[in-house]
Design a protein that fits this description.
This protein is α+β, with helices and mostly antiparallel strands. It is 29% helix and 32% strand. Strands 1-2-3-4-5-7-6 form a seven-stranded mixed beta sheet, sandwiched between helices. A hairpin with a 5-residue loop joins strand 6 and strand 7. The longest helix is centred in the first third of the chain and has 16 residues. The protein starts with 8 loop residues before the first strand and ends with a strand.
Length: 173
């Protein structure tokens, strides 16, 4: 049902993507992430995304998701974090409502797995969608992530959250 998008292109996040990030800050898209951020918070997030994409690829990267027709459909990225077993990559994504249900998130997740694998620094890529976020959990399941279990953490800081810990082994198959 949702796999009819077969290709997306990931383009490194740039200064020009501020308007896209503002569009991705909509209440329905931020419902599982603590709600929309203030304008100041969005500006700080944009700066972090631009800065991450200017660093060496092994540190991670943020991308805009671009469809074959050139439309920007959302964002996805990977970055370093310290997990229970040591350093790993984490990923997260958001797709604009007009492009949801078309396989965009799955195609972008497959592409970001390839980017994280090519970066070559960490063995695992994790995703931590809210246990209540059926769509993001389906993306993880449908792209070959392994469910490790439920974790309790704060996101954003100060807001308790229950999320599934999904892991993808980046070693070549």
């Amino acid at each position: 049902m949702d796999d009819h998008v077969t290709a997306v292109r990931l383009e490194p996040w740039s200064e020009a993507d501020a308007a896209l990030l503002s569009a991705l800050n909509a209440p329905e898209l931020m419902a599982h992430l603590g709600g929309p951020e203030s304008g100041e918070q969005v500006a700080r997030r944009h700066r972090r995304y631009v800065d991450l994409s200017a660093r060496p690829a092994a540190a991670g990267r943020m991308f805009r998701i671009v469809l074959p027709d050139g439309a920007a459909a959302g964002s996805i990225g990977f970055w370093e974090r310290t997990g229970e077993g040591g350093p790993v990559y984490e990923t997260g994504w958001t797709v604009l409502p007009a492009f949801q249900g078309r396989g965009v998130a799955k195609a972008a997740t497959r592409a970001v797995v390839a980017e994280a694998r090519a970066a070559g620094l960490h063995r695992y890529l994790h995703a931590f969608p809210s246990v209540d976020n059926a769509a993001s959990n389906a993306v993880c399941r449908g792209t070959g992530f392994e469910l490790l279990g439920v974790r309790e953490f704060e996101y954003p800081p100060g807001r308790p959250m229950r999320g599934n810990d999904w892991r993808f082994d980046l070693r070549p198959a």
